[in-house]
Amino acid sequence: MSSPAAKPLYAGYRFPAEVISQAVWLCFRFPLSLRMVEEMLAARGIVVSHETVRQCALKFGQEFANQIRRPPRAGDKWHLDEVAIKITGVQHWLWRAVDQAGMVLDMLVQRRRDKRAAKRLLRKLLKRQCRAPRVIITDKLPSYEAAKREVMRDVEHRQHKGLKNQAENSYQPTRRRERQMKRFKLARQAQRFLFAHDQIANLFHLRRDHVTASEHRAARARAFEAWADISGVTTAT
After folding, report:
1. How does pLDDT run across 123-144, given as a tens digit for each residue?
2. Which pLDDT band, with edges at 50, 70 and 90, does 153 fall under?
3. Are strands 156-159 and 77-87 parallel, antiparallel or unpaired?
4. Residue 8: enclosing H or E segment and its boundaries?
5. What is the pLDDT of residue 206?
6. In this structure, are residues 95 and 117 in contact, taking their beta carbons and an 8 Å threshold?
């Protein structure tokens, strides 16, 4: 039985809160196509079209992501990187920052790969994190150093291609999603989808090193509880 809080959020929708929550979670948590999500739901006896799954993801993905709380305190070492993505045949740059634990701090889809674009990312990070890091790690793109001198003058800056593996690794789920979606159609769509994708990934970003199996299971259970609360499907007791 759904909780009373779920009713206003899903008012007017044919499917119950539990089905919509599961569909959105599958879309953003795993590199699945819409038809794969349709089939996975069908295996559980839920008949829903891939177009309905798409509409639910558009409607609720961003809304759920906005409710996910940031970690109490992100790491003090920020890894910054940018990769090229094609949107309707035009090259864009996906800028992303992660901390030393692999938590995504923020991202931006931009047309430029220059000082102005780097400054925009740094300012957005400062506004969202409400503090400067101890050190930032980037590749040798000169735009980072030029932007840092104006935005984070006193922050240590390390430039070395081999030091930013954390940021590069964070792009792997994005690349898989991009392939499944047959590339993004609009920069705005990419920004919206990847923001929700990263926030949901952060919620389920569970460290396996230096923790016992029981601690890992407890952390996973807390993540699922948080997702149920965010999506409004907490079961009544």
Report:
1. 999 998 888 999 999 988 999 9
2. very high
3. unpaired
4. helix 6-9
5. 79
6. yes
Looking at residue 236, its pLDDT comes to 46
Rounded distance between C-alpha atoms, residue 38 and residue 35, angstroms: 5
The DSSP line for 145-199 is: HHHHHHH-TTSEEEE-GGG-HHHHHTTHHHHHHHHHTTS-S-HHHHHHHHHHHHH
Mean pLDDT, residues 154-169 = 75
Nearest 5 degrees, angle CA 137-CA 140-CA 141?
Answer: 105
Instruction: Find out whether 232 and 22 touch, Cβ atoms under 8 Å.
Output: no
Task: Tell me what pLDDT residue 167 has.
Answer: 64
**Higher pLDDT pick, 233 / 39:** 39
Tokens of 187: 């920069």
* Cα–Cα distance for residue pair 68/85, rounded to 1 Å: 26
Question: 3-state class of 219 per DSSP?
Answer: helix
Spell out the domains of the chain, with CATH numbers in brackets. Answer: 6-67+209-231 (no CATH), 77-203 (3.30.420.10)
Neighbours of 101 (CB within 10 A): 12
Span 70-82, mean pLDDT?
81
Structure tokens at 138: 């980037």
Distances (CA, A) of 145 to 71, 75, 120: 27, 21, 13
